[in-house]
Amino acid sequence: MVKILHNKLFPKSLLVVCSLLVFSLAAQAQTLSGRLSERSGRKMRLGFKLDPGVSTLKAQDNGVERNSARFYFSYGILADFYLDQTGNYAIGSGIQISHMGSVMQYQTGLGLDDYNAAASEYDIRLQYIEVPVTLKLRADTEHDIGIWGQFGGFMGVPIRARGNVISTPEFYETKVNIFKNINPLAAGLIIGGGIDYPLTETLTGTVGVIYQNNFIDVTRNSKWDDGRINTNNFVLRLGVYF
């Protein structure tokens, strides 16, 4: 009797398990298909981001040294333009306002004419409007988390440049306008990666790490006589796509 009961229960149990497995796979496929079809029906997505980080100015020649870095902060619009139907390839762009700088030590004879009679320290604070253009690659995982990486460049223009200057222990001048002494163009490299995570049906959070390097000399050499000064920014990407 027990053997007969066992023979009847086993096929039924197997049928139930197979049915549950099929339904589970179908649900996962439907979820993935929904995500892909949602992206495939769109040619782009927009978002907003806040990027805290660390900013440094790096001197390439002798006579100028960095005393300390400054807090980096950037905010602006994210825009991904899809290149394929699944949304796994995109051109990443947007527009952002970036704040950066460093505290730099100049030897006697270097730096701005008003302060180069003695060794001077400049607390340089810069503000730029920047437009990044990168190739963005993205892959979905089974837990609805998207993994992305990007590589490309950016261009920008300064909109504000100020500095606090100490040229002698007795002389300290704050908020010196150095805008005319800064190069009018910035351009460089962007590389980074991170994850996308669905927050709601319409919102997707994004978190990543970005490195940004400016190829162009920040300070006008004819004004500062300081060789090449480059910016390096290490950024934490915090954003949301709508």
TrEMBL record:
Annotated ranges, domain Outer membrane protein beta-barrel: 28-199
Pfam families xref list: OMP_b-brl_2
Signal sequence, start to end: 1-29
Keywords: Signal
Name of this protein: PorT family protein
Classification lineage: Bacteria, Pseudomonadati, Bacteroidota, Chitinophagia, Chitinophagales
